[in-house]
Amino acid sequence: MAGPEGLPNKAPLIVRQAGRFSLVGALGFVIDAGLLGIFTQILELDPYFWRLVSFLAAASTTWILHRKYTFRAGGPWTSQWARFVLFNGLGALLNFGVYAALLLYAPAPASHPLAAVTISSALAWGFNFAVCKWVVFGGRG
To answer: Is the pTM for the entire model greater than 0.90?
Structure first.
């Protein structure tokens, strides 16, 4: 059935997945930052070790939601979870590496910290979405 001006009512699968991926990622950020805040600000625990714990909790939550909701994937969960954590760690390294490179080498305005974090985050989002869709969850959806 066509919508306004003959356009289909349903967005393409990849667009729906990208939207769900973004929502799940936002929830992951809230979990990561919230737990880190509890660990470091309320309980006054080590910010380095407990950052790893908060990241793993957020990554595990987002993996479950991506598996069930974003990509609707099945298969062996242990290797899939390991791939998810590995590739999201690589995405974080990409994010930081591009950010640092822009600060050091790019002309203004790309060398401004807020511009650099915006650019690097967008690139890392694209990388993470692509590897989740086609490597971690095998293109399912």
So the answer is: no
